[in-house]
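Quick start: read one record
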Amino acid sequence: MTTGAPSAPPASASGGSRQIVVEKRTFVQGRPAAYSVAGAGMPVVLLHGWALAHHTYRDVIASIAQQGCRVIAPAMPGFGGTHEIPARDFSIAGYASWVADLLDALEVTEPVVVVGHSFGGGVAIRLAHDHSDRVRSMVLVNSVGGSSWRKGHVLQSIAERPLWDWGLHFPGDVWPLRQARRVLPVIAEDFFPNLVRNPRAIIKVANLARRADLRSELEDLREAGKPITILWAARDGIIPRESFEALCVAAGVQGTVVEGSHSWLLADPVQFGEVITNDMNIAKLARELDQKVPPKRRRGLRRVSTLIGTTDDGKPGPANP
C-alpha cells in the first residue's frame, strides 16, 4: 500500500512539460519507507547521497523524468523518515537488498536504470552486482567505492582518510557563492531534519561510505557486460580524483569529468539531465528491443521411456511407433 501527495512543481528542463514530483510512503521489509516518484516510461531508480534524502533531489528527479522515464527516488533507511534496517543487515549489501525489496513493494518487474550519487553510488554498485536481473544499466555520479586517496605523494586506502579531512573539504564543495545559494537550501531540506531525527544514522553511514571498496564488484560487472557510466566533477573535494580513476579502471570504462563540485547535479539539475541524456536514450532503445523479442518457446521433451520399446524379457527393443 502506498500513500502520497504531490509536491510543488519543480523547475523543468528545457524542451518538455513540467514534471510533478509526488511524495509517497509504503512499507519495505515490514517497515515504513518514504520515496518520491515522477514521470512515466522506463523505470529509473535514483539513490541519494550521504545524510540526504529524496526531497533534496526533487529537481533532479524532474530532470530525469523529463526524458520519458518513471523515476523512483527512495529515502534510504535511516534518512528522510524511512526506518533503519536491522543491525545485522547494516552494510552496503544490506542497503542494496532493501532497494531490491522496494522494487518488489512497488511492483516494478522489469530491469531499472539505477543512478547513484555519492553513497547512493555505492549502493547502486551492490544492487547491480547482487541483484543483476533487477538492473539494466548504471550511472555513478561522484560515487564512493574507489577506495583510493593521495596523501602527499603516497596513494593510500581512502579508509585511512580521517573524518576531519573530509570535513575540511565540505565548505569548498558548496562555494562559490552563486552555487552556495542554490545548493545549501536544497541540502538543508533533508540534512538538518536527518540530523535531528537520527544523528546516529548519519555517523554510521559516514563510516560505511568512507570504508567502501567496491572495485571487485565493478570488475565482476565489467566481466558480465553490464553498461556502466561514471561521472565525476573536477572540483570534488569529497571524492578525490584517485578514487574516481580507480572506479573507472575497475569498471573498464572511460569516465566523464564535468565542471562543478560534489553536489554539481543539485546545483544544476538541468545540466545533469543533459549529461545523462545519451545514457537514457541507449537504455530506452535496449528496453524497446527487449519488448519486441517474443518470449522463448519452451520445447516439450518426450521421455526416453516413451520412445524405446522393450522385449518380453525386459531388454530394450525397437522404438514404439
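The chain is about 40% helix and 20% strand.
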